[in-house]
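Morning!

As promised:
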Amino acid sequence: MIARCAAVFGFNEYSQQIARHVRHVYQDFTLFVMTKEEERAACEAGFLVELVDLGDDWSRIEEHFDVKSLIVFCALANDSENVFLTISLRAQFEKLNIIALAQDNESASKMKSAGANKVLPSLQIAANVISDMLEKPIVTKVLHDVLYQDGLLNIVEIEVPRHSVFVGKHLHDIHFKSEYDVILLAIVDHEMGTTFSFASKGHNHHIDPHDVFVVIGYQDKLDALKQAVKRKHD
Amino acid sequence: MLGRWIVAFAFFIHSSPLYRNVKNTTYNFLENSNYPYKKYFDLTMIALIMLSVYILIRQVKYEMSLSWLFFNNYIISLIFLVEYLLRLWVYSDSTKVIIDQYEHDLFLHRPFSLRKSMKAIFKHKLEFIFSPAAIIDLLAIMPFFHEFRLLRVFILFRVLKLFRYAKSLRRLISILASKKFELLTLALFAMIIITVSSVLIYVMEAHNPASKITTLFDAVYWSVVTIFTVGYGDFVPVTHEGRVVAMVIIVSGIAVISFATSIIVSAFTEKLDEIKEEKVIDDVSKLENFYLICGYSSLSHEVIHRLKKIFKHIVILEKDPLKAKEAQSEGFIVINADPSSLHTYHTTNIQFEEQVIAVILLEDSDVANVYTALTIREINKKVPLYSILHHHENRKKLSLAGIDEMVNPHQLVGLMSQRISHQPIAYDVIHALRLGHGGTVIEEIILDSGMSKRFFELLLHPLFHQRLSMLGIYQNSTQTFAFNPQPSYEIQAGDVAIVVANKALSYEFRDLLHRKKMK
């Protein structure tokens, strides 16, 4: 289910940046802080804030949000507290989508064990970007523009609906580049597993309902492809 | 009149580019340890010294051919003589002394004093002549006068010349020199003991018919052999008084040896870090290309590990000794010095233009990174500067300090959170591509003009079609990205294609593209 509301836990430079980037994307957004000082500072920074502590009764979350359409960002400054927050949320809400922030890979694996769906290890992220900038400056620039800038070029996931005209075809039968002017990077083929496989592996996948294409292209071309994928069999 | 001629000549010589070039090159060969060709000169001199010593040893029992003896006595000596004179020449700048004296006198409205300038020149030259290294050099030339048989042993002074050419030997001398006072005190103590004991043993033993110690020289010889705990046994005291002296000198001998050992060991221990640091600086000066990282932290550690995977040399500058040690224990090349200090770059002799690919500022604060950036920009305006940005509001300040690219981890995490929450698979795909997980990578391929036809044909080659995705071409001249270009696209020199493929396949593509004829 697509998340419609988001909650960010913690008030620090990371959580503020997360809040700034996601609050406009979701219908309902709340920043949860741990102390009165954080609450005051967050209010001054213009956020809608709620005060919680780690030993809280999490039923408040259920009252406030529809948990099925909620995404939570655990971004406390302290990794051990963040692990505790993650495990507390997972204990309470089995299906909740949790994205946790970790300082390094060591903490990241603990966050995973605690039940986070995705972990962002800040140290590795910065290190990877720095080394990419040094070694592949153009790739870094182009990917940064594709991922994070509001340019025309974009990367999207397109799920194949049950009755799509694409169902039953093979990957090599669809000419993404020449016909749609987009490039297929990867595909999630549910026959092969739940993880993606790069299109450049050359496998001629059989397309089934709910397979996901990860394609890159100009927004109008991507929209055209989305429409084509949605078209049903005659 | 003579003075005026000399001043005019000094000005002429001083301003002559040819003279300066020759003198600089000579200086570099003789004295500049950072000069890349000095090692060849040093190796030649070491070879000559070895040859000289070999001839001396061989001569003892075998006849040497006249040509070898001529080579040893005249050619090698002549080379050493020329070297000695060249060292004397480059030791000081005589023309500058004359010019300085002339300008000084002119300023004070005095007639030029030739005597004073000559005195200053001689003073400088005598400084060289009486330096220990120059004395050894001079003694090494002595075998030139081989007709005097005694002077042949001076050939051994050539061995001492090795100190000039071998850095490690020079280092050994400098370590011992740091304990000069202690060693001299100990030597004085040993000399007093030897003198006193020699006189005493001579007085006690010389009149005893049973004793072999009959002269003062025998007594001194016995004292030296005993105090240094050798004790050959060829001379032994036979009187009770003599044996008492022997006991005292044996105990003193142990003290002398143990003191000497402890002084030398402590000198090495104290200088150990310095020696290691010098070794690192030496190693760095030999690196052709490296990334310079200023500041060692967990982030630096991660960046280094990433860069090491692509076999790049990395040098770290870290002022905190504890952090520097930590980095050393990880096996990295670390110089324990302040990256924000100009002095650091002068002492380490880092050549930004020739050696440094880029500088990465990873210190703990924006303040420190700005300060270091300004220091580096003072030395070199062109070297690419990358920096971590701790606080978003400081971006402009870092930019003003001359930093070309900045990475703000907080902002990155914010941007990623947005993408990951919406399109987690797309994020994972890009992440995997960047890290090369599963063998699929995203690569840059530099293109050349006139390559268009071959490039687009190759993309349709059965080996690459369906297995190599060309995302687009980045045009460097306009800094624009042409996504999924058509075969009619005109490639220009310096354009960069971005491709996604298996690593081996992308190398093959690059290789075939740059081959003149496609099979």
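Chain B is about 60% helix and 10% strand.

Hope this helps with the figure draft.
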